[in-house]
Amino acid sequence: MDRASDYLRHLDQYQTFLVMEKGLSKKTIEAYSTDLMRFGLFLEKKKATRASDIDTGLILAYLIHLRDQGLGARSRARHLVSLRGFFKFLTNEKIIEKNPAQQVDLPKTGLHLPDVLTVADIEALIDAPDRDKPEGLRDAAMLELLYGAGLRVSELIRLAMTGINLEAGFVRVFGKGSKERVVPVGRLAQSAIRDYFDRSRPLLLKSRSSVYLFVTRRGSAMTRQSFWNLVGRYGRLAKLKKKITPHSLRHSFATHLLEGGADLRAVQMMLGHADISTTQIYTHVAHRQLLEAHKKFHPRG
């Protein structure tokens, strides 16, 4: 059975379920079917028409595609509802393991693309910690590495001493699904980590030891919530108007690379995305930034 008919077969099963089990009206079922057929056409172009091929990143890419096609927030929300129902059915039928649409949120104002900081914003944020204090040196190094390598928060706070190689200029992290990846570390992040390692870490640990690179005064790894709070505080100290989260730096890392001409596949590898459709979201962010810059600065924008 070919891939297209596989998706259509599941869709036919879902339509039967809606009629026999849910007892929905003909008009409602037609609306769901139209949405799902449109999604099927998108999947064919992506060569991912088996239900098991579809992940959250692909659904996000589809919602961005709908936006680019001119669909408003309400219409995109309806499509998302249709997808959630379909994948919930496939999950309940044990056709797929989990619902890839369940975690996708579509606010009433439209699909929320990641906030991206400017280079000046990044510099102000990283300059905010007081480097005369052990915690300040640590926090500056964490911010440099988060932006410099595009790490997830969980990867940053659990980074082992054995995971960083400053001589070779790379960091080894374990991402989602415990998948290992190696990411380059720039010179500024390397310098900040050396300062932290030489002047701060011994003071924080005192006579204790830890397998983690970044530690607290208790000698333990920092929690996710503590780091989120730190990033928010430094954003306020830097007088940044945007709401700053650890994700802001990861998003900025990806967008700045793409704006600078980096290859999409290379960025995918550095971010640790299993599906390039997830990485493609950042190309939309980059394009939006360019359009806004053109409109603002070009005399005929």
Structure description:
It is built from 13 helices and three strands. The protein has a three-stranded antiparallel β-sheet with strand order 1-2-3. α11 crosses α13 and α12 (264-271) crosses α13 (276-297). It is elongated, with a radius of gyration of 23 Å. Helix content is 60%, strand content 4%. The chain folds into two domains: 3-92, DNA polymerase, domain 1; 119-297, Orthogonal Bundle (hpI Integrase, Chain A). β1 (164-165) and β2 form a beta hairpin.
Beta-strand level of the residues, as a percent range? under 5%
Distance between the termini: 51 Å
**Whole-number average pLDDT?**
84
Annotated CATH architecture of the largest domain: Orthogonal Bundle
Could you give the order of the helices and strands? HHHHHHHEEEHHHHHH
CATH class of the largest domain: Mainly Alpha
**CATH fold label of the largest domain:** hpI Integrase, Chain A
- Helix segment count? 13
Helix amount: 55-70%
Structural class: mainly alpha
The strand line-up of the biggest sheet is 1-2-3
CA-atom Rg in angstroms: 23 Å
CATH H-tier superfamily of the largest domain: Intergrase catalytic core
Number of structural units classed as domains = 2
Low-confidence stretches: 107-111
Number of strands: 3
What would you say about this model in short?
The chain has 301 residues and is mainly α. 60% of the residues lie in helices and 4% in strands.
